[in-house]
Description:
- The protein has helices at 81-84, 123-126, 133-137, 154-157, 166-171, 253-263, and strands spanning 2-4, 6-12, 44-45, 55-59, 65-71, 76-79, 85-86, 91-92, 97-100, 116-122, 141-145, 162-163, 175-182, 191-203, 210-213, 225-228, 231-238, 246-250, 273-277, 284-290, 296-303, 309-317, 321-327, 335-340, 345-347, 351-354, 359-364, 374-380.
- By secondary structure, the chain is mainly beta.
- It has two domains: 2-15 and 283-380, Sandwich (Immunoglobulin-like); 31-277, Beta Barrel (Thrombin, subunit H), CATH 2.40.10.10.
- The strands form six sheets. A seven-stranded antiparallel β-sheet has the order 9-4-5-6-11-10-19. The protein has a six-stranded antiparallel barrel with strand order 13-14-15-18-17-16. The chain has a five-stranded antiparallel β-sheet with strand order 22-21-24-27-26, with no helix packed on it.
- β4 and β5 (65-71) form a beta hairpin.
- The longest helix is centred in the last third of the chain and has 11 residues, at 253-263.
- The radius of gyration is 23 Å and the shape is elongated.
- It starts with a strand and ends with a strand.
Amino acid sequence: MKSLKLLLSLVLLNSCLTKEDFTVVEGFEVQLSKYVVGSRDNRRLLTKSTVDRSTVAIVGENNNLVCTGTAIGTYFVLTAAHCLYDKEKNQIRRDLTVIPYIHMAEYYKPYTRFLIKNMYVPKSYINSVKGTPSSIERDIGIIKVRSFQNAPIFGDVVKTREVGTIADVRDNGNLLSMVSYTGEESKKALSQYRQDSCYYVGPVRINSGAFKHDCDTMPGTSGSGMVSGGKVVGVNTSHSTSSVYNFGAIIKDSDFEEINHIINREPELLRDFQDFDVKGKAYVGLEIRNKCSMDIQFAIHYQDIDGRVQTKGYYTVHAKTLMLMNLKLSNTSPSIHALSVDGVNEWRGDHNINFYDKNRPFKKVHLRQAYEDGLINFDCD
C-alpha cells in the first residue's frame, strides 16, 4: 500500500461573514399549509441586503432546524420554552447550538456557531399540561451562549433587540412583525422570512399571557420574536388546527423583570425561571473538505460528552467536495485516519489505533474549545 501524502490542516471558520457568504434563494416558493393563516402566504423572503441580524437559527443534531430565536443581549437569545425543554422526557435539550443570521441557498452550510451555556425555562411551563392555555402563556425560554477567550462575542456578531411588554403592543396599535427561519428540506434551503402586517388579536382567555395572532407560520418558526414598536414583545409558540389564528406567548411585566435579572446576571432574584447549566454538552460541527482529485474515506477517534471513547467511520468525502459532521465532542484533540477509497493510498498518521481489527495510523488534530465549526482540510501533495 502506498503512503498517501495528505496535508491535514485544521482551522476555525472565520467569525466575520463576508458578502460572499450570503446568497439569496431567488424565487423560493413555500407551499401553503395548515400553519398559514387564511388562503394567502403573506411572508416575504429577505434578501442578502435585508437579512435581519437579530434573528438566529436554533439547530439540533445534523444541523436540523429546531426553532428561531431573537438576540436580546450580548450573550442572550429569546425563544420558546418548548424549543429548549422536552416535557415528555422532563429534561432540557443538550443537542442545540445557535447560528446567527444564515442566509443561503446551500443547505445548512456552517457559519459561526455558538454553544449554549445556560437555558432558562419557567417552572410554571415545566409544571403545566402540554397544549393548554397555561402551557402556551409560559412558553418563553432564554438561552445564554458560551463565551471563550479570544473568541468572537455573540453581541458583536448579531444586532440585539430591546425587550418590551403588552404595553408596547397597545401603544403600537396591536401591530406585529416577525422574522423567522424556515425551509423546505426538499428544496435544500434555509432562509429568513419577514412579515410586517400581522396583528395581536387578543388573549386566548381573560388575563392570559397566551394570545392569538394572525402571522403566518411554518415549521421552524416556533420561538420567533414578535416585534412591536421595535421591541420584541413575545414569541410565536404554536399553530392552531381549529382556529383562523396562531398562538404566541406575550412578555408580561413579571417576565420582563425576570428577563432583565437574567441579562444582568442576577439569578438570586429569579422567581419563576429555572436556570439549567448545560456545561458545554453540545454538538460541535466539523466541516471536512477534500481538496484532492481522488475520493477519500476517513475515520475519526474522539471522546464524547459522556466520557466514552468513540471511533467512527469510514466516511467518504468525494474529490473536490466537503461534508459537514456534527459530533458530541468533549475532548479537543480528535484523531483522523484517512485513505483513498480504492485502498491503494493511506495517510501515515502519528500513532496507531485498533480499528476494524487492525492497527491503523491516525493523526491527532487540535481543536480549541469549540465556539464555532472546525474546518479540516485534506490537501494531497
